[in-house]
Amino acid sequence: MANKAKKVIDYQINYQVLTSQYFAEVIQLANKVHGDGYLNNETLISWVNTGITDNINTSFVALHNRKVVGFRITFSADNWHIDQWCSPEKWQVPKQQCCYFKCNTVDEDFRGLGIGKKLLNLAITSAQQQGAVAGVSHLWKQSPNNSAVAYFTHCGGEHVASHPDKWHEDSKQGYDCVLCGYNCHCEAAEMIIYFD
C-alpha cells in the first residue's frame, strides 16, 4: 500500500468502545484471523464483561467506513483467572493490579497503520482508570515473522516467560488454529507492560 493511501486510511479510522452492536463483526474478524472456533457470541460476551469495572470498558474497536477492521479485548485487573500459563511471581507488581490483554486483532488489509498500538493505548488508559499499573499478555510466537511479539515489544512489552502448547487444549475443544488445525502446538510469549 502506498504511503499516501496509508495516510488517507489512517485518517479515517474511528475508535469506539466495544459494545454488542459490533459483536457479529468482531467474531467474524477474529475467526478469519485466528482460525475458526476462536470466538463465538457467548465467549465474546464473557470477555467483554470481564473488562468492565466501575462502568469503564477496557475493550475497543477500530472502524473504517463503519466497518470493524480491528479490535482489542482487555480484562480488568483482579477480574480474570490467573492460570498455569501465567508467572505472577515475575511480574514485579501485585497481580491484583495487572489487567490482561486478551486479544488484539487487525484486519490484514489495515496492518501497519498504527491501529494495534492505538487500540492498546486506549485499553491502557481505561485500565489505569480502573486502578491497573501493568498489563500482561500472551503473544503468538508463530505469527508471521513473530510480528505479535515485535509489536508488543515496540509498545513497551517485556518478556516474562515462554509457554509451549499454550492453545493446545483450546484446539482440542474446537479451535482450528490457522497453522496447526485442531492439534495446536503454537508457543506463547508471556509479556508485561508497566504503565509508568
Automatic annotation (TrEMBL):
Gene3D superfamilies named among the record's database cross-references: 3.40.630.30
Transmembrane segments: none
Pfam family, one: Acetyltransf_1
Family annotation (InterPro entries): Acyl_CoA_acyltransferase (IPR016181), GNAT_dom (IPR000182)
Domain N-acetyltransferase: 13-196
Name listed for the protein in its UniProt record: N-acetyltransferase domain-containing protein
Organism the protein comes from: Colwellia asteriadis
Lineage per the UniProt record: Bacteria, Pseudomonadati, Pseudomonadota, Gammaproteobacteria, Alteromonadales
